Amino acid sequence: MKNYLIYIVTTFFISVLLVFVLVLPAYKKLQTLNAKVFEKEVSLQFQQEYFDKLRNIADKVEGKEKSFEKIKSAIPQGNDLASLMNYFQRSASKAGVSIESISPAIVASSQSKKIHASKINLIVSGQYSNFKEFLAIVEKSARLIEIENIDFQSPESGDPFTFNLSTKIHYY
């Protein structure tokens, strides 16, 4: 009977020793790995929420492309004087006035500003009502055009009015 008791006690101590030597370190590693997995899952969830927000913002931006195009056409990139002069010529012909001269003026702009300005002086001749229509067409333009000054001369016996316009055009 003594031998059985020694075997049982020895087996018990070896089992406890094996638990402390082999099982507990593996269990601690398992707990550490589970904590890392949980941390990664939380991080992944936050990233997923972030990307969902970005998708929602991108969808909203795509829904407002027309608005962005209008803004882009109002203040275009670069000083495209040729297309602007063409616009003035087409607007004048729609309104029934004629442009006698177009002269771009140089405007000093600082490098710190992102939006630059360019001035164009126009000499337009025609009837007053047609000139008003020309101004209305320019005012309704998608392009940001400021009319800074208007001078005019009265006609001599049946000649059309001559209007001198100073305009300011903005661009990136």
Fold topology:
Blueprint (H helix, E strand, L loop, with lengths): L1 H62 L1 H10 L6 H15 L2 E8 L10 E11 L1 H12 L5 E9 L7 E11 L1
Antiparallel strand pairs: 1-2, 2-4, 3-4
Helix pairs in contact: 3-4
Question: In a few lines, what is going on in this structure?
Answer:
With 172 residues, this protein is of the alpha+beta class.
Question: What does the model show?
Answer:
The chain is of the alpha+beta class and 172 residues long. It folds into two domains: 2-63; 75-171, Ribosomal protein S6/Translation elongation factor EF1B (Alpha-Beta Plaits), CATH 3.30.70. The chain is 58% helix and 23% strand. It contains four helices and four strands. It has helices at residues 2-63, 65-74, 81-95, 128-139, and strands spanning 98-105, 116-126, 145-153, 161-171. A four-stranded antiparallel sheet has the order 1-2-4-3. Strand 3 (145-153) and strand 4 (161-171) form a beta hairpin. The mean pLDDT is 84.
Percent of sequence in beta strands: 15-25%
Contiguous helical run count: 4
CATH level-3 fold name of the largest domain: Alpha-Beta Plaits
Mean pLDDT: 84
Q: Spatial order of the strands in the main sheet?
A: 1-2-4-3
Write down the CATH class of the largest domain: Alpha Beta
Shape: rod-shaped
The count of domains is 2
Q: Regions with pLDDT < 50 over 5+ consecutive residues?
A: none
Task: Label this structure with key terms.
2 domains; 4 helices; Alpha-Beta Plaits; 172 residues; 4-stranded antiparallel beta sheet
